[in-house]
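Section 3.1: Structural characterization of target chains.
Under the original work plan, the team committed to producing a structural model for every single-chain target entering the pipeline before any wet-lab resources were allocated. The record below documents one such target. The sequence was received from the expression subgroup and is listed exactly as submitted; it comprises 351 residues.
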Amino acid sequence: MNNVTRERKESVLKSLALIGLLGVILFIAWVSVQIVAVFPTAVSSLASLADSVYNYNPRGVSDLKLQPVAESVETGGELSLAWDKRFETGTYAFTFLCEEGLSVEIKTTESTFENAECGKSYTLGTVDNAQVQVNSEKKGQAPFTYTISYFKNNVYTPSSQSSQSILVTNSRFTEPGPNVNVVNVPAPEPETSTETTTETAAPEVVVVTPAPVAAVKPQPTYEYVYQVPVSDPKGFTDLKVTYLGIGSKNRNGSFTNSGTLKEGVAGVVQFSVQNIGTKTSDTWSFEAELPGGTDYTSRTQNALKPNERAIFTLTFPALSKTSVETFSVEATVTGDTNTKNDTFTSTTIVL
């Protein structure tokens, strides 16, 4: 009786063991099928990740988001440029394309660049905005295209940048219509002296009649009138001092703007004083502190009409050693409504 019971138990155990073995085999087969189904997708994802890592360029240039500005601006107007500051470290830089007759001045809370040169990069610092004044001195319309770039610390190629273009207009220039010949009227020769040159914004009232154009149909006649700005008795006076350059005189006695001084060679600094107000100024004067510590005080200067300017070229003694020199000019006039632009300070090096 005991033998029969033992045999039954062994039979049941063998059956259970066989069922368990079959279950394990089926489970392994199911897991294998799932792995095979998922494997291609996993391999593809890994390959894509590897490709992204391989092709990642930490110095690649991406777009820097600039805030929109007006499509055009009148010459002498100030543009407020701004951009999204997404980076806590590194610096921003400003550059613009060359265009005949454009003069540019850049201001930020950290630095000021007067008479900025096209194609040259100016470091603005860690700011997210800049004030730019653009003048078109030779054309009625001139494109002003600028670029803001972001540079990481100790990296000399931009990691992010963007450009915008603005049309600078000058209402003093009149664009001729089609099939009309316009005679250009030259401005009168400026007064010259050993110290100063005065430029008038425009000649006296002149009426210019273009030469007739041969055509089958009658052609209209155009007249262009230029006038010297009239002083407004109720207006204001605002003298603006602008640094133009520093260098030396060549063999012909003409000023060469090199931006630097040469050891043992007399130096020359050039700047302008312009009345950007609406009222003729009183007589005025200026003081200059030149490289090497030379101080100069001018004689009393003639009054400046609205938009009239005087260009000064000052020569000073040669410096005897290489150094970094600071120089400045300040104009003084009674009734000036804006004294912030009455002076400039700049530096140069002696080579």
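Residues 47-60, 175-194 have pLDDT under 50 and may be disordered.
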